Protein 1
Amino acid sequence: MTATVPEPGRPRMARWLSTTNSVTATFLAAGRVQGLINLAGGLPAPELYPADAMAEIAGQVVRDHPAETLGYGPADGLPALKDALAGRLATADLHLSRDNVLITGGALQALDLVGKVLVEPGQTIAVQAPTYLGALDAWRPRDPVYRPITLDAPGLDAEAALAGAQFGYAVPNFSNPTGHLVGLPQRQALVAAAHRTGTWLVEDDPYGTLYYDAAPLPRLIELSAAMKPGPYAGPVIYIGTLSKEIAPGLRIGWVIAAPEMIAALTMGKLAGDMCSPGVTQRMAAAAIRCGLIDRIQPQVIALYRARRDALCAAMAAHLSGWLDWEVPVGGMFVWATLRDPSLDSARLAALALEAGVCVAPGASFDPLGRASRSIRLNFTLNDADRLQEGVRRLARALAAA
Amino acid sequence: MTATVPEPGRPRMARWLSTTNSVTATFLAAGRVQGLINLAGGLPAPELYPADAMAEIAGQVVRDHPAETLGYGPADGLPALKDALAGRLATADLHLSRDNVLITGGALQALDLVGKVLVEPGQTIAVQAPTYLGALDAWRPRDPVYRPITLDAPGLDAEAALAGAQFGYAVPNFSNPTGHLVGLPQRQALVAAAHRTGTWLVEDDPYGTLYYDAAPLPRLIELSAAMKPGPYAGPVIYIGTLSKEIAPGLRIGWVIAAPEMIAALTMGKLAGDMCSPGVTQRMAAAAIRCGLIDRIQPQVIALYRARRDALCAAMAAHLSGWLDWEVPVGGMFVWATLRDPSLDSARLAALALEAGVCVAPGASFDPLGRASRSIRLNFTLNDADRLQEGVRRLARALAAA
């Protein structure tokens, strides 16, 4: 055969691969540093996973539903899980049927599918800036143009922000990366603008159950539903996940939206991975139905509230000379901005890594590469002692900067 | 608020949605017909699922590996499953490490990811024609151009077939839809051409364990590995799945390829759904490790061989006046071609549906819409009695055509 013939080069890979940001690779490399304290990721506390209960549920759902857990299922998800979620999310105003629900492989697959069905190269996505890194990654292969929206800017013109975009994107509850809670007036303005312009409005809500100090504000999709009675058919595309409520390893996310959007996303899902596994869908449905998720929610909130307090107390003690931040009222992150305009957060992140703590540099979260004077700190993964030690290491890095 | 203002139209959806073929929708609608016999799909026999053993395994893996099954995992898959698959697929010539393996959400996600990393709009994919419908669906959002290859044509010029394409695509073992087994000379020609041209060569192998009458031929990736010693770094992108070996509901597929391709596909997976669920990955690893898959394989083969024989016997008794076919030596399908050139298989499929049997019209499987005189019949889902009744109904439809 031809083993001795030198081989020609391979075909070029798709362009988006060469534009991918390097922050994920940096984090992965950081994972190998001995004794490193990881404040960079967005991971839940593994000690909260209800492992015994989930092991019991895992065996039970395969025994009780062998056809659904071992066979192919519908692309849009198992009816039992769709019904459980519709029941959990419906309100007096928000009327949901199965046609409003799609089950996805985590919230990230929902974002990927939204890009797949709505974006042609060069089209515009209006994003709350700074923006969730995973969303930017998910949409990169569709080659969009970004229009940043600063949701807490005074005098936001929401209609101008959304007009002509394929969709708007916001994380109203404790935005990733900033931890910012979008206020009710801005929520109302966004929803009204989506109804007026017709633009789809993606409400990404992974942290919606993580309110530590106050009652939850209404979701965008609830505000939208209140504008028109009947089964939901409005412009909001709501994305949720069980990753923060119970366990990310299930990879169970969902979309709640108008039936026409669910039908299009289902075509994308059918062509992308056929359907989500039956085992994890049935485990999720069982965990909702038996009350397990409701039972662990107070533990989740108590632990994360205490860790937020521990991080912010340590920051006040060690970092207040260098950084400004607001204490977030929920979510998983503190967003801190360097006072010294000559310092760059990418350089700070590199110095922090040398000092034994990993933080996320702000520019990674900005589609235009700005936000370069801020860093994102996670408080859910580590206990109070490690949070304090991480902050002390960051202070050493700042002193050396 | 603005409830009384009439709403403007929504932004247009991506173009590929309007070009999707309607055969899947037809099958779904068919599923609602009372008493219908479904010979159209590609479903395994559910009675083969080892439900009790899998229920036991499901509980055990969550108990034994709570962090891996409930937490986020690596985008490329859990090391335990990657090692189990590398061990299962390696041969004397094919040397595999973890860097050669990616875990995907079924084989379909592997196809989706190959399109995502290799295809820009207008680029060429050289496909064995007719072609697996799911592959055409998976690549449609990337807007490729198709170059059909007839792999059993005498005097195939494999280099001309692959040159300039981003990749070639073949199902050498019992092709979907034709059930055709690509012979050794054509396999050697394809692999040699991939090495000479540099073009990637996707070997999609869902039916590779379903040989009923003969010993398996070498896989394309084995032939490729034999051309160059050392860890695999050649042009073949091998795609496998547990869907036909044990249970499609696990949604466990995999890619075996050169590390540079695995790295690119992993970027696509990380941006698409982050990682596959830990529960199903650990279940798959356990089912391989404990020998469950090896134990059920003889049952799978015995049952499917008997059903193939039942279908082909019934066809010989009732359909030989209208159709020509070859008895497949493996896989899940019989491909039958109408003798009467004035008959169209889409019309036949519609008449068959009225007669109470669902068959897959050939044109759906051809990127250029040809193959319109053939139909695909599945023999794995139904028992012998239903296969015979399905054939009798098809004969009635043909008599009425």
Protein 2
Amino acid sequence: VGDDCALLRPDAGLDLAVTTDMLVEGRHFLPDAEPRALGHKALAVNLSDLAAMGATPRWVTLALALPAIDAPWLEAFSAGLFALAARYNVDLVGGDTTRGAVRTISITAIGEVPPGLALERAGARPGDDVWVSGELGGAALGLVRPEIAEAAKRLHLPEPRVELGERLRRLAHAAIDVSDGLAGDLAHILERSNVGASVEYARIPKCAAFAKLGDPELEKNCVLSGGDDYELVFTAPRAHRPELESLARELGLALTRIGEIHGGTPQLAVLDAQGKPLAHRGGFDHFART
Amino acid sequence: VGDDCALLRPDAGLDLAVTTDMLVEGRHFLPDAEPRALGHKALAVNLSDLAAMGATPRWVTLALALPAIDAPWLEAFSAGLFALAARYNVDLVGGDTTRGAVRTISITAIGEVPPGLALERAGARPGDDVWVSGELGGAALGLVRPEIAEAAKRLHLPEPRVELGERLRRLAHAAIDVSDGLAGDLAHILERSNVGASVEYARIPKCAAFAKLGDPELEKNCVLSGGDDYELVFTAPRAHRPELESLARELGLALTRIGEIHGGTPQLAVLDAQGKPLAHRGGFDHFART
């Protein structure tokens, strides 16, 4: 503080994982977004990227453009960001606040990971199980049905799966976080690993609110193509099933096997209860266009 | 590339210096700013912050908001940024491009510096000489007299003093880059070090264009209170004069002694040719208000 730069001392012998993200008002959040939740989410999406690499978050920089000095907004935003940062011992090491007509938030997060143990998208192998943490579809449901509190919370206060990412370093072959939707994000693993996958729709853990809605098409769109859940999708060898099941109990976080990786073209088949391929809209981009 | 984060391997045993900066169209640059120069300057201001700490630049992340995909603009911007990055072996390790109504550029730069050798603002001691690199006032002159090519170049294509910063690690006690004007930036050193300073106006190296203009008031405002020169101001013990003079020759960069640090209140006196204090407007913020 007070110098041109912050000085950090990384742990000797670790690699650094770095991710950066920009959120713009009107595109990534609404002008009336609750600032405390926004501060949480702006950091959460970056911590989620680190988790998907198996990295332990350490430091973060924040650049903000604001139309005017709005002290209550800034205090609430900072409180949300710092509360999440404190939970994971993440230090804010640099900041720049400037004036700009459109509220804009840019965060760079830096984490540490032992050399060779980072989880990459290219590591999936035929025979791997496909796993997902938590439940899917809630954040997308929160967009269209904001009155459902459980879904709105998933949208506005996502939990980055930091501990899970760290523990998967020696258990998973490949991982990604669900930011654009299960179908689209899993497709990134398949393309980078040059493998195919089949997933059973019935086995995908879904936000509990869907059970009461009785709208299977909405459910399917949210679960397969909805973004912003920030759960981890990962592949792991069958031999690690017992360890992953005990890890789920230890973390108090559901880890569910939803399918498997196979050789062949990098395509995802989502199968219905009869084992037939289910039509779906792909990742978030496609959903947004309909 | 292709994963959630970039992986870096820092050199063992070095500290990291991190700085972040956000530039907003209409505030930090004009809508018709030449994009190649803008790409250069956006990176240069961050490399200058690293240089002021004595850090060697290594990695940079870039987040961009753009109103529309404008391929020629983006290509020229990137060309300017990458050309400067290549000169200093800086790798772009993360990026996020998103849509936003106002062009916004956020850069985080990471450098390395041996532990204990970072140049901080708090290190100035009574008896130190005050030095400045290059010439001052050119960038501010370029703002008001854009037709003077030499001055416009100083404004739009500043040179971060990377090698100088590295070489000052063992020679200087304190350093800062001139981003807000000599008077304001040197005042930061004085406040943090709790020392005073006197500077002789006649000894300050000035952009050569002032000699032809014959406007001493404009010159004084630009030289003392103009920002954006990105030269380094630093303090060093008298015993290092010979080394600093030979460093200037080696780097082909003027290093000029302009005054000295003394004990007492953290105030800056700028003295005229008769040794009398010269009234001045302080740093850039004050200048902007007049």
